Amino acid sequence: MSDTDKYMLEVNDLRTYFPVKKGLFRRTIGYVKAVDGVSFKIEKGQTLGLVGESGCGKTTAARSIIRLIQATSGKVIFDGTDVFSADKQSLKQIRKDMSIVFQDPYGSLNPRMTVGDIIADPLKVNKKLSSSQLTEKVIDLLRKVGLSEIYMNRYPHEFSGGQRQRVGLARALALEPKLVICDEPVSALDVSIQSQILNLLKDMQDELGLTYLFIAHDLAVVEFLCDIVAVMYMGQIVEKATSEQLYKKPLHPYTRLLMSAIPKVDTSARYAKKSKIKGELTDRGQLPKGCSFAPRCPLAEGICIQKKPDLEEKQPEHTVACWKCQKMLDLNGEI
To answer: Domain span at residue 266?
Structure first.
């Protein structure tokens, strides 16, 4: 099987920089490196979780992939098509096959449109359907996401957050996409509603054969849904592994920091010990010369500060960008 047949999405060295301007003439004095050399692949039917703290560049990476934000450089191959070099017609087809569910279920729906019109909107633009066919398709989509057809003529403000996110998912599925980018789709919802939406995403994947790029900062959510997990810090991927490997033995100190933040009832649990990692996020306009996590890492030594580590495979299907990850392999990795 060729890579084109195997992978739904291939992201190679993606970079998205935003200029910093100053002075009367608004001259560019530097760049904020929101996404700085991100690479990953997603197999067809798989779910890749992109995780990290707020502000690490997850959403910018996702929006750059779908060309909602202009990337600075890099290459994105979607189902064999180069997204960044696609012409207007090709991009229109890509947009049918690649959809996005936004984080905010309140702000992502037009308050002046009924739910039926919101879901029907992409169908009106991209497909030639009669009025009866359009209504039938909208009703089918509503049922797929667990909503009744009686909601068609209601407005977004009449729904709860979980119901709004179901409407957003129905809209994303309207054109029968191959890839759905889920940009923190449950972070704004109550915990009880989160589980309903996550189960719905799993059911839709099984039923429709969808591929997901799932963005989150909650590692507990990612463990439930994702096959592969990529951990981002300051615009870069610092660790990537299968979900089972990552949760069994994370090798990067930053990943362990995120693990220790997962609430646990059992205080003797493996990552329940309070992390010793302190400090604030580095200024995005003044990244350190070496490892971007070095200013906050208790294991950092001279090489960490002076030289940037490459993302290398330390175990089968487990890549890490850390000079000190060997300690995590040799020992239990307590930090």
So the answer is: 252-335
